[in-house]
Amino acid sequence: MTTQTLQTSVEIPYAPPQARSVGLLRPALSLCHRELIRFLRQRNRVVSALVTPIIFWLFVGLGMGHSFSTPGQSSSGGYIEYFFPGTILMIILFTAIFSTISIIEDRREGFLQSVLVAPVSRMSIVLGKVLGGTTLAFGQAVIFLLLAPLIGVHLSLVGLLGALVMIAILSFLLTALGFCIAWRMTSTQGFHAIMMLFLMPMWFLSGALFPPGGAAGVVRIVMLANPLTYGLDGLRQAIYWGSSNTAAGPDFGICLLISGIAAAALFLLASSIASKRVSADLA
Q: Quick check: helix, strand or coil at residue 223?
């Protein structure tokens, strides 16, 4: 005689797995690392973003020679010395542009869509992209900054630290600005058109080629409203820290404050743009 064992089954309600929060920094650093690896694997981007501004600096600086004089340079430096901080800004601009073009490429290749459906905040995605471009722009600008002794400019320790801070803020500012433009774009050709129409004039009217004090009325007003003007002026003051060669303008602290506010505002604007559906999502 067999004994039958009655087994009672207990029904356990199904609980769907909860998405674990990964925070803000971890996915941002992952995207930043990807941008660095991607940039270093494309050597043509490294060469074009760094060598092109250097050639422009040499040709324009040596071409102008000593025909241009401003209080923001030494008596023997010539235009090539005045144009030196403006070339640093150009390197930052070019690198920021090339780094944010990857947003359009990622969208076309499908990588961006996979990131957008991940359980991470849009601000984290923006931060990762912007940090990647900022790191690249900062590194290339610092490499060019090391050439300052070749034109007779010797930075003090305080001036070097101030220049590094301004370069970091300008790199973040321009990368965030490039993100705001690239996020809505569906083609790299359209992005280059916006660059020539909007970003390059911002650089021209930042004091990189000529000081605001000598510009005509309307142009001077536009230059004073340009946030890059204050960033470049702060960078110039840091390079000539403790010297009497700095041109008259806002104090370094004011330039630092205005640049920092502009960088933070553009990052928040980029986060807001990324959190909304744009026409490029349907392309």
A: helix
pTM, to two decimals = 0.84
Burial 38-65 (b: 16+ CB within 10 A, else e): bbeeeeebbeebbeebeebbeeebeeee
pLDDT, mean of residues 190-213: 84
Tokens of 119: 């359980």
Of 253, 195, 201, 252, the C-alpha closest to 225 is 201
Show the DSSP H helices in the chain as ranges.
25-41, 43-64, 79-109, 111-116, 122-145, 157-182, 188-194, 200-203, 217-225, 227-239, 252-274
Query: Rounded to an integer, what is the distance from CA 51 to the centroid of its chain?
Result: 18
Sign of CA dihedral 137, 198, 272, 102: negative
What are the pLDDT digits (tens) for 88-120?
A: 999 999 888 888 888 888 888 887 788 877 788
* Residues 194, 255: Cα–Cα separation, whole Å: 27
- Sequence letter at residue 162: G
CA-based nearest residue to 127, from 176, 197, 173: 176
Cα(43)–Cα(38) distance, rounded to whole angstroms?
10
Per-residue pLDDT at 6 exceeds 50: no
Q: What are phi and psi of 71, to 5 degrees?
A: -65, -10
Query: 196-207 as b/e, with b when 16 or more CB fall inside 10 Å?
Result: eeebeebbbbbb
Pull the structure tokens for residue 189.
């050709």
